[in-house]
Structure to design on (348 residues):
C-alpha cells in the first residue's frame, strides 16, 4: 500500500477571540487583542467638494476694489479678500485690502507687497476675519476672467495650504466702466463663474478697522469711478423720510407697495430701493437678462422717472426717458405701474 498522503494544513490567520474571561482576568491581553482587531483601517471615500455659483460682498468693498483699479487704469493692481464662508460654501467678502507700498505693478502681472500683506493679515485675524481669496485687475486687456496662470495659482494655493475653497475676483475696464467678476474655486473641481449678491447695508466693520489701522493701511486715491453691470451700485445711503415726494408717509406706503408687487413678478430676481445723499430715490430691478436703475426726481410723480438699463447678454447700456409718453393715474402706485408697464412693453 502506498503511503497515506497527508493533507497539508493551511495556516489560518489569527483573529483574536475576546472572551469574557480574557477581558476580566487579563486586561493587558484584552487591550492587545483590541489593537489587533483594528489593524486594518477602513477609509470611506471623501465626498467631492464643489464650488458654489454665489458670492456675497458689501457694496463698500466692491467700491474699494473699483477705486484701486481706477488708481492704476493701464497696469495691473490687486490685493486680498477677507471675510468668512457661508454654510453653503459661498464666500462673504467683508474687508478688502489693496496693494502695499512695495507692490509690483506691470502691464500683465501683479505681485503684492508681502511684508504689507503679512502685517495687515495678522491684524485682521484679531477682528475674526479669514483670508478667503485674492483680487487683481486685467485693466484694458479684454480678459474679464482668470488666465491659465491665475487658475493654476489658485488651485496650487488650495493644494499647498490644504484649503477647501478660495475666491478670486478679476477686475477689467471697458467702455462702460469697471467690471469686477467673482470666481469660486474648490478642492475637487474646476472654478465656476459666480454671481454677486451685494450687501448694501452699512459695513461697520470696515469703518472700525479703517479707524483702528489708519496708520498702517494704504487707501486708494481715486474717488470718481464708474461700475458697469452686472454690479452697478448707486452711490447711496439708507432710505430716510426727509426729502421730496418721499417725505410724505402715504407716498412711502405706496412705494413699499410698488416694491412688494415687483418682487412677486416671475421675471424679477431682485428689487433694491435706495436713496442718495441729495435725496434722489432709486429702485434697482434685476432680471435674468438685464438690470434697470429707476431714478425718481424730487417732484415725482409730476415729473417722470428715468431708467438706465444694462443688458447682460449683449453688454448694452441704454437710457430711457418718457418725454410726452408719461401717463397719469389716480394714485402714485397706479402711475408707476402704468408707466413702467408701458416701458416694458416697448423695450422688453
Amino acid at each position: 500500500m502506498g503511503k497515506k498522503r497527508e493533507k497539508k494544513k493551511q495556516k489560518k490567520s489569527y483573529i483574536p477571540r475576546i472572551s469574557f474571561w480574557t477581558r476580566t482576568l487579563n486586561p493587558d491581553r484584552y487591550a492587545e487583542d483590541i489593537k489587533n482587531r483594528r489593524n486594518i483601517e477602513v477609509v470611506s471615500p471623501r465626498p467631492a467638494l464643489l464650488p458654489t455659483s454665489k458670492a456675497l460682498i458689501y457694496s463698500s468693498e466692491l467700491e474699494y476694489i473699483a477705486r484701486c483699479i481706477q488708481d492704476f487704469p493701464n497696469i495691473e493692481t490687486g490685493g486680498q479678500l477677507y471675510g468668512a464662508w457661508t454654510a453653503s460654501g459661498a464666500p462673504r467678502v467683508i474687508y478688502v485690502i489693496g496693494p502695499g507700498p512695495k507692490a509690483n505693478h506691470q502691464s500683465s502681472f501683479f505681485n503684492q507687497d508681502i511684508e504689507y500683506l503679512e502685517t495687515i493679515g495678522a491684524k485682521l485675524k484679531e477682528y475674526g476675519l479669514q483670508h478667503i481669496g485674492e483680487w487683481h485687475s486685467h485693466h484694458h486687456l479684454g480678459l474679464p476672467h482668470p488666465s491659465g496662470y491665475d487658475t493654476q495659482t489658485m488651485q496650487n494655493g488650495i493644494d499647498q495650504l490644504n484649503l477647501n475653497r478660495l475666491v478670486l475676483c478679476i477686475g477689467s475696464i471697458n467702455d462702460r466702466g469697471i467690471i469686477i467678476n467673482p470666481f469660486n474655486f474648490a478642492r475637487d473641481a474646476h472654478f465656476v463663474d459666480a454671481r454677486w449678491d451685494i450687501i448694501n447695508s452699512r459695513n461697520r466693520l470696515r469703518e472700525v478697522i479703517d479707524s483702528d489701522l489708519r496708520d498702517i493701511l494704504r487707501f486708494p486715491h481715486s474717488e470718481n469711478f464708474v461700475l458697469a453691470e452686472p454690479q452697478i451700485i448707486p452711490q447711496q445711503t439708507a432710505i430716510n423720510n426727509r426729502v421730496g415726494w418721499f417725505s410724505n408717509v402715504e407716498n412711502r406706503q405706496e412705494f413699499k407697495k410698488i416694491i412688494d408687487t415687483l418682487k412677486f413678478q416671475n421675471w424679477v430676481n431682485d428689487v433694491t430701493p435706495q436713496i442718495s445723499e441729495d435725496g434722489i430715490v432709486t429702485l434697482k430691478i434685476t432680471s435674468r437678462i438685464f438690470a434697470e436703475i429707476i431714478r425718481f426726481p424730487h417732484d415725482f410723480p409730476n415729473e417722470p422717472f428715468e431708467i438706465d438699463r444694462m443688458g447682460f447678454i449683449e453688454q448694452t447700456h441704454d437710457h430711457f426717458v418718457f418725454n410726452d409718453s408719461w401717463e397719469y393715474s389716480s394714485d402714485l402706485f397706479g402711475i408707476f405701474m402704468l408707466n413702467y408697464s408701458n416701458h416694458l412693453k416697448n423695450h422688453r
